[in-house]
Design goal:
Blueprint: H1 14-33, E1 37-38, E2 44-46, H2 47-55, H3 59-63, E3 66-69, E4 75-78, H4 83-92, E5 102-111, E6 123-132, H5 137-154, E7 160-165, H6 172-183, H7 192-197, H8 203-206, H9 211-216, H10 229-244, E8 250-251, E9 263-270, E10 279-285, H11 289-292, E11 300-306, H12 307-316, E12 325-329, H13 335-347, E13 352-354, H14 361-370, E14 375-379, H15 381-386, E15 388-393, E16 399-403, H16 404-421
Parallel strand pairs: 1-5, 7-8, 12-13, 12-14
Antiparallel strand pairs: 2-4, 3-4, 5-6, 6-11, 7-9, 9-10, 10-11, 14-15, 15-16
Helix pairs in contact: 1-5, 2-4, 5-10
The chain binds adenosine monophosphate.
Adenosine monophosphate (AMP) binds at residues 81, 112, 114, 119-121, 124, 126, 279-282, 304-306, 308-309.
C-alpha cells in the first residue's frame, strides 16, 4: 500500500519552497530591524514545560499535544508553540541577570493534534517574538508595530487588529468572580465545553465561537469596567503608542487569554477573507509566565504568527514575491552583458531577474510587470556604447537614463525612495 504524509501534514515542494524562503527571510529581517535576535530551541521538550507554560486547562495542553514516552520513560512533547521554550531558555541560561529587555525571535514547525481543515494543520509553522524584562506598555506597542510592519512588507491588506487588556492579578480575580456570578444562572444555555469550563476558566466563555453562547452572554459584565487603574493606564499607553505610529485597531472586550499568567495587553490579527481560520497571529503580555516556568518574577510580551495562513492570505490577495529589478535585454546578442548586470545587482544585495526565454523586449516588459518588478533596466546596443542604462519605474511608468558606473551604487537609494513614496 502507498504510504502518504500523515493527516494534517504536507510537503513543501520546490515551487512553494521559494515562497517560504522569501517569507522567512522577510520575517527575520524585519524582526532584526526592530532589534530582535534569533533563538532556536528544541522541537521537543519535557511535557511539564507546556503543562506549566501553556496551562494544563488550555485546549492545547488538554487535547492537542503530541506526547509520548521516550525509551527512558520520560514524558516528552513535540512543541505546540514557542513561548514556553523561550521562557525556559531565558531561565536556564540566566538571561535575567544580564541586560534587559532580552528580545528574541524564533521560526519553525509546531505540532498540535487539531482537526485539520483549510488553514489548520497538525504540523504548521510559526514565527514569533518574545521580549522579556520590561513592563513598559510601549514595548507592547513595539511588538504590535513590528507585527504590522511584517504584514505591510508582505503586502497584506484588509487586516483587522483587535486589542484588549485582560487585567492583572489585582483586578482579574474580582472580575472572574463577577463573571462566574453572571454565568451561573444561565449556564444551561451554554455549549457543552463552556458548561464545563465556566467555573475553571470563565473568561474563555467570552471568546467561545459557538453562536448560542454568544447569544446567551449578551449582557455580560464588561472586562474593561473591572480593570484597576494601573491596568487602565497601561492599556491607554499601549493604544497611544499604536496611534502615534498610525496603527489602527479595534478594541475587543471579548478578546481574552484565559490563563493567570497573561496580563494586560492581548491582541489578535484577522484576515476576514480567510474564512473560519481567519486569525493569522496573536499575542500579548505574560508577566506571570517566567515565574510559572520556575524563574524569577520577570515580565514579558510577544506574539506568534501562522506562516501557512499568511501565505494563504498572500496568495489570495495575489501578491507576488516582488523582485526589485528586472533586466530587459534588447537583443539576444547582449545576453552575456545582461547576465553580468543582473549578477552585479544581485551581488549588491538587491533581488534581480532577467529573461531566459528569448522574449521580445515588449514581452519582457509585460513579464516584468506580471512578476511585480519595481524597476526595469534595459540593456542594448545604445546602452552599451553610450555608458548609460534606461531605467523604468514600473509603478509610475516614468523612464529615465542613469549613468552606468553609478547606477548600482544608487539602486538602494532609488528603491528606498520608491518605498517611501508608496507608503
Ligand atoms: P496561537 O499560538 O494559538 O495563538 O496561534 C498563533 C497563530 O498560529 C494563529 O493565529 C494561527 O495563524 C497559527 N496557528 C495556530 N494553530 C494552527 C494550526 N493548527 N494550523 C495552522 N496555523 C495555526
Amino acid at each position: 500500500m502507498q504510504i502518504k504524509a500523515p493527516r494534517g501534514t504536507y510537503d513543501i515542494l520546490p515551487d512553494q519552497a521559494a515562497k517560504w524562503q522569501w517569507m522567512e527571510e522577510l520575517l527575520k529581517l524585519t524582526a532584526s530591524d526592530f532589534g530582535y535576535r534569533e533563538i532556536r530551541t528544541p522541537i521537543f521538550e519535557h511535557t511539564e514545560l507546556f503543562e506549566r507554560g501553556v496551562g494544563a486547562t488550555s485546549d492545547i495542553v488538554s487535547k492537542e499535544m503530541y506526547t509520548f514516552r521516550d525509551k527512558a520513560d520520560r514524558s516528552i512533547t513535540l512543541r505546540p508553540e514557542g513561548t514556553a521554550s523561550c521562557a525556559r531558555a531565558f531561565i536556564e541560561h540566566g538571561f535575567y541577570n544580564g541586560l534587559l529587555p532580552v528580545k528574541w525571535y524564533y521560526s519553525g514547525p509546531m505540532f498540535r493534534y487539531d482537526r485539520p481543515q483549510t488553514g489548520r494543520f497538525r504540523q504548521f509553522h510559526q514565527f514569533g517574538v518574545e521580549a522579556f524584562g520590561s513592563d513598559s506598555p510601549f514595548l507592547d506597542a513595539e511588538v504590535i508595530i513590528l507585527m504590522m510592519e511584517i504584514f505591510q512588507r508582505l503586502g497584506l491588506q484588509e487586516l483587522q487588529l483587535h486589542t484588549n487588556s485582560v487585567g492583572c492579578p489585582v483586578c482579574r480575580p474580582q472580575y472572574r468572580e463577577k463573571l462566574i456570578s453572571y454565568l451561573t444562572p444561565i449556564k444551561d444555555e451554554l455549549c457543552q465545553d463552556c458548561q464545563q469550563r465556566y467555573l475553571v476558566n470563565p473568561l474563555r466563555v467570552l471568546d467561545c465561537k459557538n453562536r448560542s453562547c454568544q447569544e446567551a452572554i449578551k449582557g455580560y459584565p464588561l472586562l474593561a469596567d473591572s480593570l484597576c487603574s494601573d491596568c487602565t493606564g497601561h492599556y491607554q499607553q499601549v493604544r497611544a503608542g499604536l496611534a502615534a505610529n498610525g496603527i489602527e485597531f479595534i478594541h475587543d472586550d471579548k478578546l481574552v487569554r484565559g490563563l493567570d499568567y497573561y496580563t494586560n495587553t492581548a491582541f489578535e490579527v484577522h484576515v476576514p477573507s480567510l474564512g473560519a481560520q481567519s486569525a493569522i497571529g496573536g499575542g500579548g503580555r505574560y508577566n506571570g509566565l517566567v515565574k510559572v516556568c520556575g524563574g524569577p518574577d520577570v515580565p514579558g510580551t510577544g506574539f506568534a504568527l501562522g506562516l501557512e495562513r499568511m501565505l494563504l492570505a498572500v496568495d489570495q490577495q495575489q501578491n507576488q514575491m516582488p523582485v526589485d529589478v528586472f533586466v530587459i535585454v534588447m537583443e539576444n546578442r547582449f545576453m552575456a552583458q545582461a547576465l553580468q548586470l543582473t549578477t552585479e545587482i544581485r551581488r549588491a544585495g538587491i533581488s534581480a531577474d532577467m529573461d531566459y526565454n528569448n522574449r521580445s523586449p515588449r514581452a519582457q516588459m509585460k513579464y516584468a510587470d506580471k512578476i511585480k518588478a519595481r524597476l526595469a533596466i534595459m540593456i542594448g546596443e545604445e546602452e552599451i556604447n553610450q555608458g548609460y542604462y534606461s531605467v523604468r519605474d514600473m509603478h509610475s511608468s516614468e523612464q529615465y537614463q542613469a549613468d552606468r558606473d553609478s547606477l548600482i551604487a544608487n539602486l538602494p537609494g532609488i528603491l528606498f525612495k520608491k518605498e517611501e513614496e508608496q507608503g
